[in-house]
């Protein structure tokens, strides 16, 4: 039985962008990935979460950006805390969470959310988990959250067992001081997406004839990305990033029914970036299970690229970020309700 700490505990974690994408699960029940992935943690996208166990509560209470949340998102948090505490027979908790990025910008990330919650739960349950254990715990909330435990560049490993997760956790590759890059996030829609990543992955695995090839080729992309990051070879990192993104989206599009996460502005932004590249400006796109386009570039090119992309019809705004730090406990930043 966990040793409950009834004081409020606050943790923060940053979202991440996958340069080599995670798409597909070898176990839905245990949330085990079918492929490894490599990501960059993002400084500007931060989640701060305060967790407090309270013996007087009858159910968990969740507040996100000053609004009470019920239904599925709350159930997911309750299930996660049961897993962290290794029992559902536990005191209920109040969870108050806040994102540094605008709510409804289509960026609300389960990665920073579950990484922050994992770190807060570890402290509130006096678990003293290692980084590896924290990452494994965060993964149970959301696969991409496992990578947000670390700053800079991280790799999510993929085990081979179907009934245990001993090899399914992320490891750090390089911290945020390794390489000063920029990621520009072009927001093209603030609508809620029709098909979330979990459902999208399950559909793809079940129905796409490309799926096996995707799984088999991932190892080569991971190896190349590791060396390119180590060598700080920007052209190579960019080329691999785009390759993994388009392979993932091609795979999603080949599902039945097909999954197309893009809108017209997404496509227009891709072409704008490619046109800049023809003019010698190094910039590369990546896209997750949504219509926003993320552009990887070097700091001295960020302003020019931003201006070009802002002129695309349908691009609402651009969020600029540099590599961000690891998830941590924060003393000063208690989120008030
Ligand atoms: C396209 O981590 O959201 O962003 O494990 O089901 O919660 P679950 O999926 P999630 O999927 C992320 C998919 C992606 C690619 C990536 O981040 O690697």
List keywords for this structure.
337 residues, alpha+beta, Ribosomal Protein S5, domain 2, 2 domains, eight-stranded mixed sheet, four-stranded antiparallel sheet, 8 helices, binds ligand DP6
Give a verbal description of the structure.
By secondary structure, the protein is of the alpha+beta class. It has two domains: 169 residues, Ribosomal Protein S5, domain 2 (2-Layer Sandwich); 140 residues, Alpha-Beta Plaits (2-Layer Sandwich), CATH 3.30.70.890. Strands 1, 4, 5, 6, 7, 8, 9 and 14 form an eight-stranded mixed sheet that branches. Helix 2 packs across helix 3 and helix 5 runs antiparallel to helix 6. The longest helix is centred in the middle third of the chain and has 21 residues. The protein binds ligand DP6. The site of ligand DP6 has 14 residues, from helix 4.
Chart the SSEs and their pairings.
Blueprint: E1 9-20, E2 25-27, E3 32-33, E4 37-54, E5 61-64, E6 67-69, H1 72-85, E7 92-99, H2 110-124, H3 131-141, E8 153-156, E9 170-174, E10 182-187, H4 197-207, H5 211-231, H6 234-253, H7 264-278, E11 283-286, E12 293-297, H8 302-310, E13 317-321, E14 328-329
Parallel strand pairs: 5-7
Antiparallel strand pairs: 1-4, 1-14, 2-3, 4-7, 4-8, 5-6, 8-9, 10-12, 10-13, 11-12
Helix pairs in contact: 1-2, 2-3, 5-6
